[in-house]
Amino acid sequence: MAVTNIVLAGLGGQGVVKASDLLSTTAFNAGFEVKKSEVHGMSQRGGSVTSDVRFGEKVLSPMVPMGEADFLLVFESSQVDINRGWLKPGGVLIAPEAIPEGALRNRKSLNVAILGALSVMLDFDEDQWIRSIHTCLAEKLHTVNEQAFALGREVGQKMGRAKETEGV
Amino acid sequence: MASTERLLLSGNEAVALAALHAGVKLGTGYPGTPSTEILEAFDLIGGPAQWAPNEKVALEVALGASFAGARSLTTMKHVGVNVAADPLFTAAYIDMTGGLVLVSADDPGMASSQNEQDNRHYARAAIVPMLEPADAQEAYDFTLAAFELSERWKVPVILRMTTRICHAKTEVRPGPERPSSIQPGYERDIPGRVMIPAYARPAHHKVRAKMEEIAQWNEQSDLNRIYPGDRSLGIIASGVAVMHAREAAPEATMLALGLTWPLPMQRIKEFVASVDRCVIIEEGDHLLYEALKVEGLDVEGKPEMYRFSELNVPRVRRILSGDTTPEAKPPRGKPPELCKGCSHREVFEALSRMDCIVAGDIGCYTLGVLPPFEAMDTCVCMGAAIGVGLGLRHTLPDDQARRVVSVIGDSTFVHSGLTGIAEMVYNPPPTGHVVLIVDNSTTAMTGRQEHPGTGRSLNHEPANKMDFAAVCRAMGVKNVEVVDPQKPDEDFEGRLRAMMEKDELSVMIAERPCILAAPLIRKFEKAQEEKQAQCAAAMTD
Ligand SMILES: Cc1ncc(C[n+]2csc(CCOP(=O)(O)OP(=O)(O)O)c2C)c(N)n1
Ligand code: SF4
């Protein structure tokens, strides 16, 4: 099986690394080899952050090569253009606009909503995702994030249908 | 033997787990990206971990533990090893008792550092064995191996990691615990541990002989591996470059070096002879390439352009094909900036208005160099603010000298600012000097670690608290003031201006917790109050 490459991008404080933890935990628990890496270190809020997640039967480098991402998840509109180069031709971009403004109880769970949209396009059971939410996030955040995830799944399903009608 | 337990760990977490399984009795270090999480993780899983004021002290404490027969781990970022270099170079001459492992976490590409020095040089220069893991599993395995090497040859061992090992999560199957057979207890060894020239001369010969033996052992060691493949292309690599190269050239034969100093030269020679073309894939300097060239081996290095920044799969492909055309620039993201509400903002707004010449230092506050403040003129290394500021004051014409102020963070002040104050008091410039300590009650830059000035230890339990104002006064600074830069009635700017006008020695401490740390600090304080209340209740019961 080929390696699935996913790049997550946003600004510090948006939960980019949290989202990549959730994603990599889900893939890992599904039995895949997973590598994830990011460059972090600065505490301050607001700078660009990206995180790479790769999974498959065998993964070597922990970094997604430029132009080879199957999926690009972006949490902040301003970060879409600068990160587009990660995508391979035909790769899927999930931009923050996919999650309608106001649909989330708390915009802080945008990261999990975007994962919800992604989840429709990957082969993991919904339960596995929910379990990752439970292991990676504090208990008081479970409900709000489960709701965000469900909302994201609806969005993902619509994106999938749109793709079918486009005949991709 | 690996267990069936499967964990997804960062390289840093893997080192911490291995340290626990190695029975490490003391973990000590100083925060620095990308090393910081090792000791934090070690503490979380129950290991004894503490922050030292700086890396030199950390290594010295670890040495003491080793002399006592205990295993000790000391962690730091690459530039931290510069600070610890003085004890390191002589520690190499001394027989370790308990195993001592120093983790050097390098930052090729400078995601969060002031330079991209390649600390593989230290193994050669200090005469110390070096291990370089290629993923978290190896970080785990090599940490255990490092303690065993350290005790077998009685040498300190460097475990050299890089950002993509420290912060990359990969699968780890931990093994059983492998503690030391040595029990802590004191045994005197004057010629072995007291490095006066008479004892150090034979010690130098001894460490060279130890390295010869380790090199011999390394010829057969399973810390180095062969990945068989096509003989037309051979690759020699170490660290994360092993993974990039295996992906870039899956058909190649590879020698992946794990114990990268002292080199297993015979094995390398045989490998080189066994392939048609042999390319060295190494991140950073051309060290391995140069070492093999000296031996007369027919190997290819990388073009100079690949010395800079990190390697990755596309860059390794380019090296293998000899491509030196300009590379596409990586996407330029939004640079970090001081958080909204950060008290460093008021400080740099004032410095900017006052048109100061700012000898700066390293921490979140270094962002004062960027717009809208642009209020920093120099930044070299931790602690340099004070020395550089004094040098400027001594030599600039008076009207310019009076504009010079040294700005230093609280963690940085403890790390290496105290000797700067001693210098200032001992050799005062004619116009005096002003040092501004921006004290936000945490080591914010690296993710909010405690330090001796916060009054809490690594695990956030109460500790003795260093009083900066009292220390500066005791050292002989004439004017010492403490002010909250966010309280207008405390008039930070006005008081700083008054200090700058005097030709005297002054320290201003701008005290205001980092807004990301403040809620945590309140939580720690509350937990402490509750504990005290419980104790009091138990006593009156
Ligand atoms: C020798 C060395 N060790 C560690 C570091 C990493 N580092 C950079 S600044 C800093 C301390 C920052 O804390 P502080 O001075 O309190 O400033 P703040 O970030 O809180 O504003 C650290 C640990 C370094 N650059 N050099
Ligand atoms: S993390 Fe703290 S010190 Fe750093 S910029 Fe933010 S508020 Fe300021």
Helix percentage range of chain B: 40-55%
Describe the biggest sheet of chain B?
Answer: 7 strands, mixed
The CATH topology of the largest domain in chain B corresponds to Rossmann fold
CATH architect. name of the largest domain in chain B: 3-Layer(aba) Sandwich
Number of helices of chain A: 5
Compact summary:
Chain A is an alpha/beta fold and 168 residues long. Chain A has helices at residues 16-29, 80-83, 110-119, 126-136, 142-166, and strands at residues 4-11, 33-38, 48-56, 69-74, 87-94. The longest helix of chain A has 25 residues, at 142-166.
Features:
A: 168 residues; alpha/beta; 5-stranded mixed β-sheet; 5 strands; B: 541 residues; Rossmann fold; 3 domains; 5-stranded parallel β-sheet; 40% helix; binds thiamine diphosphate
Word description of this protein:
The complex is a heterodimer of chains A (168) and B (541). Chain A contains five helices and five strands. In chain A, strands 2-3-1-4-5 form a five-stranded mixed beta sheet, with helices on one face. Chain A has 168 residues and is an alpha/beta fold. In chain A, α2 links the parallel β4 and β5. Helix content of chain A is 38%, strand content 22%. Chain A has one domain: Pyruvate-ferredoxin oxidoreductase, PFOR, domain III (Pyruvate-ferredoxin Oxidoreductase, domain 3). Chain B has 541 residues and is an alpha/beta fold. Chain B has three domains: 212 residues, 3-Layer(aba) Sandwich (Rossmann fold); 97 residues, Rossmann fold (3-Layer(aba) Sandwich); 182 residues, Thiamin diphosphate (ThDP)-binding fold, Pyr/PP domains (Rossmann fold, 3-Layer(aba) Sandwich), CATH 3.40.50. Chain B has a seven-stranded mixed beta sheet, with helices on both faces. The radius of gyration of chain B is 25 Å and the shape is globular. The interface between A and B is large, with 34 and 45 residues.
